[in-house]
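Task card 7
Instruction: Convert sequence to structure tokens.
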Amino acid sequence: MLNEEITRPSRTPGGFTTASAFLMFAALGAVTAALGAAVPVLRQGLGGDSAVALLVGIYNSGALAATLLGGAAPYATRTRAGGTVLVAAAVGGLVGTALAPTSTLLLACAAVAGFGYGGLVLTLNTAFSTRYGQRGVVMVNALNAAFGVGAVAGPLAVGSALGPATVFLLLAAVVAVAAGAAGLVPTAPPRGEPGPSAAPGERATPGQRTVVTFAVLGSLYAGLETSSAAWLSTHLVAQEWDPTAAAQLTSLFWVGLATGRLVIPRLARAAPTALVVGCLVGAAVALALTAWPGGAPVAITVAGFCLAPVLPTALAHLGTTGRPQRATAVVLTACMVGNATVPLVVGLLITRAAVPVPLVLAGLAVCCTAVAVVAHRTTRTGH
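Output:
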């Protein structure tokens, strides 16, 4: 159970409610995961147009554009007008995606929806990391857990009797309702309000090297998460699991991810970067243990559970920097780059070099751990 500060509807200093923010993130998670599942249905509805296959990439391109804009001009998205534009883009883009009569219009609407998505993810992550002080790690992890819950529900909804168009229209309505409850006010701390204090052993304003190191960590972590989701089912099939069962068992990774973001930060007492290092070590061990056929399902769940707090905790740490939205934008942009590049390298190692899936994924987790150790040192020294 979450504590009262997470579930009660009272407004935070930023003017939004935690409930509305969680609802917003769950809807965004559902949209992001549902797009990929909807491609075959949408393609069929548009006469088999192959351009529909670009849907997810176009959506992510829009998100990248918003993230870059938010980092370069952070105040542009932290005003009431900026928040309104982001919500309008997300809602309007989703409605257009649901109703588009041609592939060209479909992709254009997906880009607009992605722009709203990227800006809202950046704005809310920054707000949660700067508004809660010592509770920032818990709150950012809980926020991203809501995203994970939505990501599980989205594809299920698309595969139901509702169909993609109805699902996107419903999610557009949810985003609009959540935004209305949020109030769309600036997320920057009011004048005179003290900023969040750093965790024990951390400096309140780490230097540029720290931000760069966290960006590298974010890129590798995002690639590890995406690669795990993409290759663990293939690994299970190689272990002679039924393909359908293998696909279902891979969902345990996402269950572990959502659960870990709720549980680990509430139990751990370590400094943020130390928590990240410890969790990555646990994930590396769990991914290596997926090589054991009898224990693979459990190891997959544990791997997701251990990886869960890595990125949200890093984002919460960046809330203690002098320019939190710019630092967060840098890391989120690096994550998008990692999502696009790291899985390609992983795929080549697995398919061309014939390196076992557990070894590749565990090795990548070890690389993440090494970068996290460097990040931990930079936050202590301030360099």
